[in-house]
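For the sake of transparency, this paper describes our internal protein records without simplification. Because each token names a local backbone shape, the row as a whole describes the fold. One such record is reproduced below, unchanged from the form in which we store it.
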Amino acid sequence: MKFIINSQRMRKSAFTSGIFSLFLCATLSMSAGLPVSADTSETIDAAKQARRELPIDSNAYTAWPTGPTISAKAAVLMDANSGCILYNKNMDERMYPASTTKMLTCLIAAEKCQLDEPVTITRTAVESVPSDGSSIGSNPGNVLPMNECLYAILVASANEVASSVAEHIAGSTEAFADMMNEKAKELGCTNTHFVNANGLYDSNHYTSAHDLALIAKAFFENDTLLRVGNVGTHHFASTATQPQDFYKTNKHKLITGEISYEGIIGGKTGYTAEAGQTLVTGCDRGDMRLICVVMFEDTPDQFYDTTTLFDYGYQNFNLESAAKLDNTYSIGNGNFFLTGREIFDHSNAILSFAPGSNIILPNMASIEDLESTITFTGEKTGHVADISYSFYGHSVGVVPLITADKVPPAPSVSVTTPVVTTDSDTEEDAEPHYVFINVRSVVFWIIVVGGSMIVLMLLGSMLHSRQDLRHNRYRRRSMKRDLRMKRRMEGRERRRRIRHRY
């Protein structure tokens, strides 16, 4: 009897262990971003190793610093200032973005809406969220100000809030998706097509690591999103239109500080079984802002691969001022002065790089290693041309060449003359009137004009001396001629007297 009981206990224990093992395998499969099938940890490790062995495209760039090996299927490290790609691994391959989609959703919302604008949570938005999808548990009819919606989307990755914002702005998620695709194209995306505002899986909802970096660049240039998107934990206080009171913690461990890294300015996580772990992160150090995107990762590798790429960027590259490095396209002007308005309608414009024009270079590179090409824009608004710089064929920055009347004058080389307003002038109509003085040209022309005057004076003096010499010669000849005539007359008179005497 005792043996039978023990056998039953053993079978029960074995059954429990088997169930636990299956559950563990399923959990590991889900965390690896793979469908819940018979995948084992060995399969997951093999898939990760296969991704690590994928070629790193940027390592093929001539004289470029060798990039690190990571387990992401696709990744990019981009300098936000110059747009230069520092690290490229499959960056243009179309992949599923998951919740990183919400960065573009929030960018459009921040550009088109006021922060206190009320947004109603819709029933369609709530019902579209799967049972395992991220949300803040909103009920249909709850109303949140747009500012709180941004926190809900970026901190809590709330799917129902993202869809409600889309419906609020465009009337439907489909119409909002059209706006997203138009905005993505405007930002330079070439491998992106969105069909929803939250990133839930759809075979027609895709982007690339490069395109996500371009979206992130615009995202981090928005002050509101820069503030909201870098919050570790947010308190959602109860209101009359939203009765729940709760806290939500960001899943981005570099933002919360769970994984510490200096200079993090925000970002967004994303996960679906089809997309794997996807992460977008921005980082500021000194004057360099880098954007890192990793796609299809296993947790927590997405965070450590991101810090590895940031280390690679900050250790191997420097941001340099185009104006300090290159004087090929610097100031060249034929006038002494250039005013804010044309003088006699034919002033020659002083050319200069636009403020903040930078290029990024590997640590050991110099301006002599670069090639530059100029493309004229044909615009009449001061933007004359674009200068494209490349390092052994790889772009390291494109900077605008503008007329100096678009650049505030430097105190050492300019004099500022304020505009005198009349009664008819308004604050909007009055524009600053600058007078630019090209010191080099002024000194050069002073020397030229002064030297010319001295030469002219010497030539005049020599000419005057030659005239005096000619005049004196003429006078001497005249005197000699008069003397000869006088002597002839005297001789004739003497001979006449002698004849008259005899």
Remarks:
- The longest strand covers residues 276-285.
- The chain has 13 helices and 18 strands.
